[in-house]
Amino acid sequence: MIKVLIVDDDALVRAGLVMILGGAADIEVVAEAGDGRECMKLVAEHRPDVVLMDIRMPRMDGLEATALIEQQPSPPKVIVLTTFDADDDVSRALRAGASGFLLKDTPPPTIVDAVHKVHEGEPMLSPKVTARLMRRIADETPNEADAARESLLSALSERELEVALAVGRGLSNAEIATGLHMSVATVKAHISRLFTKLDATNRVQIAILVHDAGLV
After folding, report:
1. Do residue 112 and residue 31 come from a single domain?
2. How do the pLDDT tens digits run along the chain, 216 residues long?
3. Among 83, 101, 176, 206, which is least packed, fewest CB within 10 Å?
4. Among the three residues 72, 101, 136, which one is the final residue of a domain in this structure?
5. Strand 2-7 and strand 100-103: pairing?
6. Phi/psi at 29 (nearest 5 deg)?
7. DSSP symbols for 86-124
8. What is the CATH number of the domain that holds 122?
9. Containing domain of residue 19, as a range?
10. Which of 116, 136, 156 corresponds to the end of one domain?
11. Are residues 13 and 66 in the same domain?
């Protein structure tokens, strides 16, 4: 079973998400929280696999809570689920360590699919959010590339860079393995090394880095 924690200050939203996820045979909602502080307590108590996280909440918002979760050993995956698709919110959520960003008008089957994919290590962004993010990256000038980011990428081996670029194109482990003629296990090993070398906590952060560097 995939254990899920739902975090939202709106009780009706939480109830709706419980109903949506309750229809999946392999998903169990283990707890609900109304803000980021309560979320942190429940993460420690229930050790969920995936957290569905609202952004704008009292006491502690979802972005701060996501960053704190990512500092824990073996943290759960976080999917930010919000009404807003502001560019800054998307960027901050992904850089804080979120593995997904979905709008609350996302169809129920897609939310269930996102939980499955993120639990398996694949990033999940709603199409509207992906389009906005890519437009923002495309509008950046080369001069905005960070020297530290370029230094991190230059430390990669040729094979590691190939895997990083494939992650940046949104390919799954299986697709990377096929395209680069290696086993899925080898792909996973390369990605683990990329997390360390690029100081990343998930695939989305790797993708952002290579996009920011203008490599994809």
Report:
1. yes
2. 999 999 999 999 999 999 999 889 999 999 999 999 999 999 999 999 999 999 889 889 988 999 899 888 889 999 998 876 665 677 777 777 888 888 888 889 989 999 998 998 887 777 666 655 555 554 554 554 456 667 778 888 889 999 999 988 878 888 899 999 999 999 989 988 898 888 887 787 788 788 777 776
3. 83
4. 136
5. unpaired
6. -80, 110
7. -HHHHHHHHHHT-SEEEETTS-HHHHHHHHHHHHTT--E
8. 3.40.50.2300
9. 2-136
10. 136
11. yes
Q: Are residues 148 and 131 in the same domain?
A: no
CA atoms of 188 and 163, how far apart (whole Å): 10
Nearest to 84 by CA among 99, 67, 102: 102
Rounded CA separation 211/103 (Å): 23
Quickly tell me which residue has 């680069």 as its tokens.
Answer: 180
Domains contained in the chain, number: 2
- Measured distance CA(216)–CA(212) in Å, rounded: 9
Amino acid at position 83, single letter: T
pTM more than 0.70: no
DSSP one-letter string for the chain: -EEEEEE-S-HHHHHHHHHHHHTSTTEEEEEEESSHHHHHHHHHHH--SEEEE-SS-SSS-HHHHHHHHHTSSSPPEEEEEES---HHHHHHHHHHT-SEEEETTS-HHHHHHHHHHHHTT--EE-HHHHHHHHHHHHHS-GGGS-HHHHHHHHTS-HHHHHHHHHHHTT--HHHHHHHHT--HHHHHHHHHHHHHHTT-SSHHHHHHHHHHTT--
Tokens matching residue 209: 């880095």
